[in-house]
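## Example pair
The file below holds two records. Each record gives the amino-acid sequence first, followed by its C-alpha cell line.
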Amino acid sequence: MRVLVADDDEGVLMALELLLQRERIGCARALSPAEVVEKLAGSNAGASAEPFDVVLLDLNYERDTTSGHEGLSLLSRLRKQYPDVPVVVMTGWASIEGAVEAMRRGAVDYVPKPWDNRRLVELLRGLGAGPPAAALLGAAAGLSAAMQAVHATIEQVAFSDVPVLITGEHGSGKELIARAVHDQSGRSGKFVALNAGALAEGTFESELFGHVRGAYTDAKGAREGAFARAEGGTLFLDEVANMPQSQQAKLLRVLQERQYQPLGASAARASTARVVSATNADIEGLARAGQFRPDLLYRLNTIRLHVPPLRERLSELPGLVQIFVEREVTRYGLPMPRIAQGVLRALEAHGWPGNVRELEHVIQRAVLLSARAAELTPAHLDLDGRGSSFGAATAPVIAAAMAPPLEVLPPVVDTSAPAALGPPRTVRDAEKAAILQALERYPEDRRAAAESLGLSRSAFYRRLSQHGIRPQK
C-alpha cells in the first residue's frame, strides 16, 4: 500500500517516513494543501502513476494558528474529488469539536499528536487491506468449485452478526476470507486482527478488553483493547484453538453476554464487534480430548467456512499470480514483467506446503529478482530452493529494487552546539530533529514549540532532557 502524508512540519514528516518505511508501507510527502492536490492529481493521471491508498492529513498549515480551517477545507475538497481514497486527519489540537467536524466532512478516522505508532500502523493497514482481499476472493470465486462454495456462503451470511469459524491449513488464506466477510458485511467499524493463540496469560485481558489508567503497576495510561477497536466492525481471532482454557473461559463470557469489562474499570461495556475466528487445528478433536471448551466451540462455530489447500485449487494459479505480480511492481515502482512460458507449469508442479502465503512469497521474490529484466522466468521462481537465501550476486539487485526513493533533507542545527545532524536514521533521531525544528520555528516561545508537536510543556521539557538539548536563552 501507499500513503500520502501531508504536514507542514519537516520533523513530523521525517518521523512518519521512518515509521512507514520500517513497516514496508510506501510513503510520499506533501508540505502544503496545494502539494496534496497536485500529488493526488498525478496519481490519478494514468496507469504509470502509482495511486494512493490512504491520505494522512494534518489540519494546520498556517503558522501560529490551531484553527484547522485550511485543513478542513482541503478535507472537504478531497472527499468531493477523490471519494474512494480514505482520509485520516491528524493534528496537535486534539479537541472533540475538531474530531466531530473532521468526521462530519468525510474523514474515516482521527489521530491526535503525538500518535501511537502501533495504532497508526494498524489503522493504515486496515484501510489499505480491503481491496486486495476482495480482488483475491474474486479471482478465486470463478475458478475453483471449492472457493465458489466459500464465496456463496460468505454472500449469504456476511450481513448477519453471527460468529464465523474459518478452518484450513497454514497459509491457505483464512485471514483473507475473514476480511472478505467483513468487506461484504457492510459494517461501519474496522477489521481488527489478533493472534489469539500467541497472547500471554498476563496480557490476554488487556489485549482483548483494554485497561484503565492504574489498573496495574505499569498501567500509566488507559488502553483500548481489541474489542473496543473493532466496535461496530469485525474482530478476527487467529489460531483460536491454541488459547489456554483459562483464556477460553474469558472469551466465552464475552460471546455469551455480549459485553466485556476493561481491567480496572468499574462498569462493563457492550460488545458490538462481530467475532470471526480461525484455526488450522482439528478443533473438534481438541474438544473431544478436553483441550478446548465444547461450549466455546459451539459459540464460535455458528457458521463454518473451510478453505481448501492451494494444491486442490491449482486452477486459481493464473489469477493469483497476476494479482501478486501487479501488487509487487506497484509497491516498488517496477515495470510490469512479461510472464515467460513455463512459469505456470513450474508453479503447478510444486506441492505448495505453504499454500497461498508461500505463493505470495515466491512471486514477491521472483518480481524482485527479475527487476532488471523484461521477463519473469521459471528460474526467478527458485522453487528448488537454490539461492533462496539471496546470495551475494542477487543481493544488490534486490536492495536496489526494494529501496524506496529517499528525499535528502537539509541538516538540522542543534541550538546548543555547532555540530549538525544528518538525515535521521532512527525514530529517536527523527524525534530529536522535530524538536530542534520546533525550537527554530518558535525560538522565543517554548509553549508554542511544544504545542506544534502536540506535547504539553512538561512532556516537551522531558524530551529536551532526554535528547540532551539545551535551548539558547
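Second record, same layout:
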Amino acid sequence: MRRLATTEVIPSARRLVRSLRDIGYDISSALSDLVDNSIAAAATNIWIDTNFDGEGSWIRVLDDGRGMTGKELREAMRFGTQRIYGDDELGRFGLGLKSASLSQCRHLTVATRTSAATPIRLAKWDLDHIEKSDRWEVLRPKLRESPLAGNPRYPDGRRAEADFVRLIDEIRQHLGMTFHRYITGETRSHRRVVIRINGQVVEAWDPFSRAERATSRLPVQRLRMRVDGRALIVTVRPYVLPAESAFSSLAAHRRSAGPRFWTRQQGFYFYRNDRLIQAGGWSRLRTQDEHTKLARIAVEIPNGADDVFELTVSKTQIRVPPAVRNELGAIASSVSRLAEEAYRRPRGDRTAEAAGLASDQYAALASLVRMVIDATDQLIARELADSLPMRARLIGRLRAMEAELLQSAATALGITNRAT
C-alpha cells in the first residue's frame, strides 16, 4: 500500500485551551484532580492553602510526594502527557493537572524538586501569554519572580470574600467524600493520606454510615462482564441507611445527609481504584425519590473497564455499560424497596431489641432473595423475548418461589403479618 503524503497540523493554542477550560470541572472537582496527582506521587500529606485578596486571590497545593526531574516536569506540563497509565493509577488522560487548574485560573505555576538538596524547578502556563502568542509555550520563571499562586477568579469586596469562605467549606466536604477511603486507610493497599485545608485536617465522610448500628449492610453482589476478551468482576455493596429516628444522634443524622443532602445523595457510588468518581444518582436506571433516599450502593469499577464505563476527563461521572445495566437495575429496585420500607417505618416501631434484630435479619435475607429473583427475571425476559407463554410461566413460578421463601423466613424469625 502506497504511503500517503502527510502534513502536520498543530492546533491553535489559543482556541484549544479555551475549549479545554470548559470540560466539566468546578473548583471542587478541579482540586480533586490535583489531589490525584499528589497521591500518584506517593504523597502521604497534602496541604491546600487559600488566600483571598480580591483579584490577587490564590490557591496553592503542596505535597510531600516524590518530585519531578526537569524532563518529567516538561512532560507533566504537556497537554496529553506521553506516558502509559497503569490500570491501578488514578491518572487516565494526561490532561488533569493542566485542564483542571486552568479551568479555575489563568496562571498555573508548578514548582518541584526531587530532594531538599536539589534546586526547585518551575514551569508556568500563562493564558494571557497564550492569547497573545497563540503558541504552546510553557514559561520558565525564576523562583524570585513567581508568586505563590495566581487565581484572578474572585472580584473584590466583602460579599466576594464571604463567597470565597463558603467555597472553601464546599471543597472540604467534597474532598472528604471523594477521598474518604484514602483518609481512613481503607484502600486495598491500606495507604493513608492526610489532607489539610488552611491547616485544618479534612475529615472523611462515609456515604454509607457504617458506624451506625442500624445501617443495613446487604449481601455483596458480583457481576460478571467481558472487556476485550477479559473476564472482569463488578463488585456491588448495597446499604440501606437508618431512618432519622434510628440514628444514634441528630448530629449523626445531619452529617450522614452528605454534601448534597439526602435526596440527591441516594443511588450509586462508583469507585475507581478506591477513589470516588460518582457520588449518588441512579445513572438513568430509576428516578430519585424522597421515599428511597436511604438507599446507597457502592460499585467498584474493575481495572481495565474505564472505556466501557465512559469515564470522563474530569472524573465526575460514568455511564453504566449494557453488560451490567440490567443487573444493576434489578439491584437498585430491590434496595430501593427496602429503603422505602425503612423510611416509612414509624418512629418507635421497634418494641424490643430482639424484634429489631429479627427484622434486620429478615430485611437482609429478603434483599438477597429479591436480588436473585429480579436478576433471574431480567435474564428470562432477555433470553425468551420471542416466547411469551414460556416466559410468563417461568416468571410466575419465580415470583411464587419468592413469596414462599420470604414467608418461610418470616415464620422462622418469628415475624408475623409480614408482607412478601
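Notes on the second record: DSSP finds twelve helices and twelve strands in the chain. The longest strand covers residues 230-240.
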